[in-house]
Amino acid sequence: HNIAQHTGDAIRILSNFKPLSLALSLAERTGSLGCVGWFIVSLSAIFTICLFPFTIWFCLKIVQEYERAVIFRLGRITDRKAKGPGIFFVLPCTDSFVKVDLRTVSFDIPPQEILTKDSVTVCVDGVVYFRVSDPIASVANVSNADFSTRLLAQTTLRNVLGTKNLAELLSDREGIAHGMQSSLDEATDDWGIKVERVEIKDVKLPVQLQRAMAAEAEAAREARAKVIAAEGEMNASRALKEASLVIAESPSALQLRYLQTLNTIAAEKNSTIIFPLPMDVISHFMKK
User: Fold this and answer.
1) Which of 109, 147, 233, 252 could form a disulfide with 126 if both were Cys (CB 3.0 to 4.6 A apart)?
2) Whole-number pLDDT of residue 9
3) By CB neighbour count within 10 A (0-12 exposed, 13-18 middle, 19+ buried), where does 12 fall?
4) What is the C-alpha separation between 229 and 115, in angstroms, rounded?
5) At what angle do helices 18-30 and 34-50 cross, to 10 degrees?
6) DSSP-based three-state secondary structure for 247
7) Residues in Cβ contact with 106 at an 8 Å cutoff, skipping those fewer than 6 apart
8) Do residues 61 and 89 make contact, with C-beta atoms less than 8 angstroms apart?
9) In sequence order, which residues have a C-beta less than 8 Å from that of residue 104 and are 6 or more positions away?
10) How far apart are CA 193 and CA 180, in angstroms?
11) CATH: 3.10.310.40, 3.40.50.40, 3.40.50.2300, 3.30.479.30. Which one for 105-205?
12) CB burial class (10 A; 0-12, 13-18, 19+) of residue 228?
C-alpha cells in the first residue's frame, strides 16, 4: 500500500512537467500504443520537427465543408470525433486518414422481380436517399457503406413487397415506402448511415394481367353507367307523373303548354307547323 501511494505521488509530481504532461495528453488521444508505438511516434515527431520547412506540406491537410476526416495513427483511430472542416495536422509515416462525404446521396434500386402475397409477379423499382451521420462508424464498422446500403435496399424491397397484395401495392405506395425507410434506417444505424427517404418509382404488371384489369375496369364502368341511366329514367318518370297530375287539375294549363310548343316550333323556322287541337273541342266526340 505504501509503495502504491508513493508511486502515485511520484506520477502526480512528474505530471506537472510540461513535456511529460504533453506526452500523457497525447497518449490519451492516441490510445494504448505500447512501447514500440511510442517509439515510432517519437521518431516521426522528431523527423517532422527537424525537417519542418519541408514536412509542413505533408502535415497540413484540408477537408471541405461537406467532408470529415477520420485519422488513424498506427492503425488506431486517434479521436472519437472526425476532423474538419478546414485544416488539420497529421504526422507523416504514422498517420493516415480517410475522407467521408456527408452530403445526401441518392441511388436507383434496379427493377426487381417480386412475387406478391397473392401470387402475382410484378417488376418494381425505387429510389433511396441517404447520408453519413457518423463518419467514424461508416469507416470502422463496414468496408463499403455505399455499396452495402445499395444491396440492403434491394433485399429490403423484396422482403417488404413480398408481404403485400397487388391491391395494396398499387394503392398504398406511401405506406410501403415508409416501411422500407424504417427497416433500412434500423439496419444501417450501426454503419453510421441515415436513410432519409425511400420512394417507389414504378410498378410494372404482366401484359395478360393488364388486359384482365382493363377489361374488369371497363365492365365496372359500363355497369355503373347503366345504373346511372336507370336512375335517371326513374327520376324522369316520377317528374312526368307529377307534371301530369298538375296539368290534370287545370285544363287551361294544357292549352298554355300547346301554345308554348307552337312558339318553339315557329322560332326554329320550320316549313311544317302542327296546330294542336284543344282537348275541349274533341272531348264531345270522345264521349260519343
Assistant:
1) 109
2) 46
3) exposed
4) 41
5) 120
6) helix
7) 127, 128, 129
8) yes
9) 129, 130, 131, 196
10) 15
11) 3.30.479.30
12) exposed
Would you write out the chain's pLDDT as a tens digit for each of its 288 residues? Answer: 443 444 344 344 334 433 334 333 434 444 466 676 666 767 777 777 777 777 777 788 889 999 999 998 888 888 788 888 888 888 887 888 999 999 999 999 999 888 888 888 888 999 999 999 999 999 999 988 899 999 999 999 988 888 888 888 888 888 889 989 999 999 999 999 999 999 998 888 888 776 777 777 788 888 888 899 889 888 888 888 887 777 777 766 666 776 777 677 666 666 666 655 655 666 666 665
Whole-model pTM? 0.62
Tracing cell 505504501 back to the chain, one arrives at 2
Cell of 112: 426487381
Q: Is 203 exposed, middle or buried (0-12, 13-18, 19+ CB in 10 A)?
A: middle
Query: Exposed (0-12), middle (13-18) or buried (19+): which is 124, by Cβ within 10 Å?
Result: buried
Q: Residue 64: phi, psi to the nearest 5?
A: -75, 175
C-alpha cell at 171: 394503392
DSSP string, 6-61: HHHHHHHHHTTSHHHHHHHHHHHHH---HHHHHHHHHHHHHHHHHTHHHHHHHHEE
String of DSSP letters for 178-242: HHHHHHHHHHTGGGTEEEEEEEEEEEEPPHHHHHHHHHHHHHHHHHHHHHHHHHHHHHHHHHHHH
Other Cβ atoms less than 10 A from the Cβ of 97: the count is: 20
Q: Give residue 197's identity as a one-letter amino acid code.
A: R
Please tell me the predicted confidence (pLDDT) of residue 192: 92
Residue 192 region by backbone torsions, left for phi larger than 0, else alpha for psi between -120 and 50, else beta: left
